[in-house]
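Tokens in:
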């Protein structure tokens, strides 16, 4: 490692040897804040959910506990300690995989609340899977190559620095596309004046939801700008904090969005114009008089008296009692 220039252009193979104590303290503070945000989620998420299951529940916890925390601790080991490179790189790589892809899975798991197009949802899931293999795997190979297998080889360091920009750009586009889908279809709901927006606080929550998604895109662009400005160390430390903050924001606003939709009387897809045919309910057929279609050799039966319907309200259910009285006939017969 002594032959490698120790500056920020070294990417993951560099160190903080030339950085001042103030910057190092700031970076450690952001790492601590990242872990604190995850600790809050670990307490709030199980306490909020009645049932500990579902893609949203587990992806939220995994992205925090198995993503943000190992990612932050791994970089702390790499930059601030003399821990073995194999250990630190392995810890931060596992955390990076789970944190970045887990964030997209969290967004995907609640996308169906505002978007009912199954083909679009399938394309989003396919995009997440393809980017996992196309962006995570090459970056990981170059990470191990620059730090362990070919330590000090500038070709591997250069390759990693290029791939770091490529993967960060790809994941920024991925998360921005998912957030854009949220914004577009939430605005569509508001314009259609759906029943879910009738609640007093529904519209304000949806406006907050739009604002948070715009803020998420802005934070991703901030990380991308730091990367292209070659502020690698600042970017990777802020990334853990920003991802933990995004998880907290998404947990807050997506939970309120679920509450709005569950409180409505009809599926949310009724409010989306292009899915109305999928969600329309068939009307009951009206009774028609078929007396003129009867065969001539059949005598019409005596007309029955009108049916009386009594409705009694019991709690939240309406109990209907029908009394049928036929003229000229007894209702009960002995067997």
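Residues out:
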């Amino acid at each position: 490692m002594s032959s490698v220039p120790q500056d920020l252009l070294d990417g993951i193979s560099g160190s903080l040897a030339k950085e001042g104590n103030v910057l190092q303290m700031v970076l450690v503070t952001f790492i601590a804040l990242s872990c604190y945000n995850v600790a809050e989620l670990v307490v709030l998420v199980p306490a909020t959910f009645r049932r500990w299951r579902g893609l949203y529940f587990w992806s939220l916890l995994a992205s925090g506990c198995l993503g943000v925390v190992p990612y932050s601790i791994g970089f702390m080991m790499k930059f601030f300690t003399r821990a073995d490179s194999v250990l630190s790189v392995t810890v931060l790589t596992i955390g990076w995989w789970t944190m970045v892809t887990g964030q997209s899975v969290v967004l995907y798991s609640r996308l169906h609340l505002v978007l009912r197009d199954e083909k679009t949802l399938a394309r989003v899931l396919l995009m997440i899977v393809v980017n996992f293999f196309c962006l995570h795997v090459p970056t990981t190979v170059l990470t191990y190559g620059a730090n362990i297998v070919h330590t000090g080889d500038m070709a591997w360091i250069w390759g990693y620095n290029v791939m770091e920009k490529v993967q960060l750009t790809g994941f920024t586009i991925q998360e921005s596309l998912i957030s854009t889908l949220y914004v577009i279809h939430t605005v569509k709901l508001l314009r259609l004046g759906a029943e879910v927006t009738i609640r007093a606080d529904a519209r304000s929550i949806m406006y907050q939801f739009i604002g948070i998604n715009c803020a998420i895109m802005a934070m991703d662009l901030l990380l991308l700008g730091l990367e292209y400005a070659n502020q690698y160390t600042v970017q990777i430390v802020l990334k853990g904090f920003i991802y933990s903050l995004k998880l907290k924001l998404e947990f807050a606003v997506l939970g309120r969005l679920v509450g709005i939709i569950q409180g409505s009387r009809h599926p949310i897809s009724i409010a989306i114009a292009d899915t109305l045919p999928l969600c329309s309910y068939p009307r009951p057929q009206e009774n028609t008089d078929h007396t003129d279609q009867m065969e001539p050799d059949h005598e019409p039966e005596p007309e029955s008296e009108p049916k009386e319907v009594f409705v009694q309200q019991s709690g939240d259910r309406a109990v209907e009692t029908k009394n049928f009285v036929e003229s000229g006939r007894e209702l009960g017969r002995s067997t």
